[in-house]
Design brief:
By secondary structure, the chain is of the alpha/beta class. The chain contains nine helices and twelve strands. The chain has a six-stranded parallel beta sheet, with helices on both faces. Strands 1-2 form a two-stranded antiparallel ribbon. Helix 3 links the parallel strand 7 and strand 8 (94-98).
């Protein structure tokens, strides 16, 4: 595994996190073809959800305390989604579904849905409810009173498990995230198959995503940020052991791409509109050429396969 790095810059939002070195990514200068779908990719294939061979052996892997299911809206563009970061870094603990595909839940009482609905609770409050069964109703009423919002009838809060203490709080099997724009997420959230799941909300965090959504505050997180912060909270409130940075590499690709965007932004500062257009045109021409080469390679492979069939 690559040596870990600790960035000291005060402008780096990832400073101090235990994120592995990005050296192997920095050494990749050109795109190559995905070994499965033959699409032109650079660091990973977001269609096949696999790392590119050039970096596969040097990527960090993370083991999560709970399985994560990501339900992606069909209109969410694969190449712009950060959900794939989690699936590549934690392949044994993350599954991505494209709606209307939704996982089957054997026991909904052991599944959480991360979504800011009216009666969602924080993990901290959920642990209190679990460890104090008789106080569950009081917590629910308190939450509604604090927010001033009415409860959503189909979303049920769980009564605590009798006889459990905070240390013995129920372990959950799965956590569900919706990967889409906020305007698209409601369609998935209201799906009947997701009803009766306990909804939880995250503590307020500021996003560092470079693709902000119009008219949305900077507390609207990218999917990989939400997964990372949830995992931290879950470790603190449910696992309840000392955290030693073991999930920080969930942000491995995200932190790398953040720095690339910052660098590109700095390089284009001061450029005229015409100069920026030239840079964009060159990138577009490069992408077009790569696509042409990919189609040519696929055509050659198809011809070769046909020749083999004819000979046989």
């Amino acid at each position: 595994m690559a040596e870990r790095q600790r960035t000291q810059s005060g402008d780096d939002p990832f400073a101090g996190l235990n994120i592995d070195s990005h050296e192997s990514l920095e050494n990749i200068k050109d795109r190559s073809f995905c070994p499965k779908c033959h699409a032109s990719r650079k660091y990973f294939c977001y269609t096949c959800i696999i790392p590119m061979p050039e970096v596969a052996s040097s990527l960090p892997t993370v083991s999560l305390p709970v399985h994560i299911d990501i339900i992606k809206h069909p209109r969410e563009i694969d190449g712009k989604s950060t959900a794939v970061h989690a699936a590549i870094i934690a392949p044994n603990d993350v599954t991505i579904y494209t709606y209307p595909d939704i996982p089957q839940f054997e026991d909904k009482a052991k599944v959480l849905l991360v979504y800011p609905t009216d009666n969602a609770v924080t993990l901290k409050d959920l642990v209190k409810m679990e460890s104090s069964p008789t106080n569950g109703a009081a917590h629910s009423e308190s939450h509604i009173a604090d927010t001033g919002l009415p409860p959503q009838p189909k979303r049920t809060k769980y009564a605590g498990i009798e006889g459990q203490s905070t240390e013995g709080v129920r372990q959950f099997d799965r956590v569900v995230f919706i990967d889409s724009t906020w305007n698209q997420s409601n369609q998935i959230f209201r799906d009947e198959r997701l009803q009766d799941l306990q909804c939880v909300i995250l503590k307020t965090k500021k996003t560092h995503f470079w693709r902000t959504q119009p008219d949305k505050p900077d507390t609207y997180l990218a999917t990989i940020e939400a997964i990372y912060y949830f995992t931290l909270e879950y470790h603190q409130e449910v696992v309840a052991t000392n955290y030693q940075g073991q999930y920080d590499n969930l942000l491995y690709f995200f932190s790398f791409m953040y720095k690339l965007v910052q660098k590109s932004t700095a390089e284009t500062e001061g450029l005229s509109k015409e100069e920026k257009q030239v840079r964009h045109r060159r990138r577009t021409e490069t992408t077009t050429l790569e696509a042409q080469l990919r189609r040519q390679k696929e055509s050659t492979e198809a011809s070769t396969d046909l020749s083999v069939l004819i000979v046989n």
